[in-house]
Amino acid sequence: MPSASSTPTEGTVPAEGTVPVKGTAGGTRRRRRGAPRTWLAALPLIAFTGLCFGLPLGALLYGAVTRTDPGTGATALTGEHLSRSLQGPYLGSLVGSVQLSALTALIASVLGVLIAQAVVTSRSQALRNAVLTASGVLANFGGVPLAFAFIATVGISGVVTQLADLGSLGWNLYSFTGLAVVYLYFLIPLMVLVILPALDGLRPQWREAAQNAGAGGWQYWRHVGIPVLAPSLLGGFVLLFGSAFAAHATAAALVGGSVPLVTLKIADALSGNVLVGQENVALALGLDMILIAGLVMAVYLPLQRRSARWLR
Amino acid sequence: MAAMTPTAREAAPKPGTDDADTAPPAARRRTRRRPRVWRGVVLGLGGAYFLIPLIASFVFTVHTPGQGISFEAYTALLAADGFTESLLLSLGLAAATIVLALLLAVPALVAVRLGAPRLRPVVEVMCMLPLVVPPIALVTGISTVLRWGPDHLSRTPLYQTFLAVQNESFPFVLVLAYTVMALPFVYRSLDAGLRAVDVPTLVEAARNCGAGWPYVLFRVILPNLRSSLAGAAFLTLALVLGEFTIASLLGFRPFAVWIVSISGAHARMSVAVSLLSLVITWLLLLALSRAGTAPTSTPGSARSPRISRTSPKES
Fold first, then answer.
1. I need a surface site. Which of A116, A302, B162, B171 has the fewest CB within 10 A?
2. Higher pLDDT, B302 or B155
3. Of A115, A246, A267, which is closest to B43 when you measure between CB atoms?
């Protein structure tokens, strides 16, 4: 009997009755089925990274720690490539890369935050759009075109070099300092892109609450703004460090071999040399780079999770 | 982001008018006047640093000391050997990379927000790891893997895949490599966008109103993500157009590699092309950003955040 009475009510109330009933009933069932289905949606990404990223990485790792005898074809485990990659000029290039990346990432983080904060506080939509588009382009204006632009500007016969007579001031584009100035050109916009959403996440209410509690501007930043932003700031710094560390084309076009950088050494070993074992030193150097960047990343990921707590 | 600003602005005047009448206006006037100075200085210096190389490069391309002004570096460009081919190749690679990266990342990120929070660290690490691996290390790995083709797999059908992927006219292996490199940027952009909207509440609200999954995805979630989707596409496009290391070391010839190949003989033209590549990227980004942001002002996206804001209070 109850079943007989319930079916007519479902049937007689057409639009308003059936839709919620169907929605709730189907909802629980679908949610139960939805759990494995949502998991499946992440599967292509995982499969893709495994194939296109994990496989080359595995090949790199394998090549870095093994040596194949060209005569017999036998493969043996060896630490020879890794230890060679941490000696002499190879070690120098690693240190040079780390120094350059850390310095430029630090400067670019500070300047990028200043620019982003200027854009956020100005509340001008036109300025914001202009800066965002410009940053989007300039952040990836790395590589060869950037090197050419700076050669034309402050190179030996560059326009600004001629106008301001930079040569007599001791300016040299093809040096550590010159390279740092060039790197800032794509690192600062990158920082702006990264930090702008985080600065947007700082609620005006927090500032007003601090002001109502009697805090000055500096106190607000010291106790509210910077602690909330800190994980995003560090995240941005890591991103910049990674970009500067990995940059190859700019340095290759600009300084050739005069500044020791690990990317230049790898490209040399990959393309130029046919010596037996050289290519595996390139793989070992690549592994060194990954380890250094991975170390920084291990600091960054837990921090990133903390930032999510505030800037939601 | 679009969901946040109205709340902030609506709420902002309230505490000032309610709590204290004297203190906040004075404080606000002080803070408002001071930033204007440093803002001008910061934006001015930043503008100078970013504009001077561009202007100087342009002067370099059109002005030869002692000979006056000539636009030959630009006029000779279109006729230059390989210019259009390499540019079209780069644009095609960029389009394929954007499509592939978004197809992979959007479902995964939405799914992680909705029903599989335990997968979240996995997806995050997978997307951010390529940041740790520099392109030059990736290309050493890729070339090692590609060498397996002729070495070990020449009798298997997999060998054909290896060949097809390295097709000279459209090297799909570059699309795969670029997608890997673009994933961190796509992830960051989408994650920021997803953080700004309350996806589970939005989906629940839409589902309670009887919407099917495709409707939820295309009419509720994606419109809210429009600006971050556009941002992800920008970054990917610019990345692919400027990429040099992987393409050159694998022996292909997209735009950036072509520029280097002419730089030795024509210094002026290489700077001209560098500038032009920047302008082309800029124009594409402008077109894309218009496509990405214009529909945000339509009522459709304004309606959805309101749903997300009211429903938690009622339930």
1. A302
2. B155
3. A115
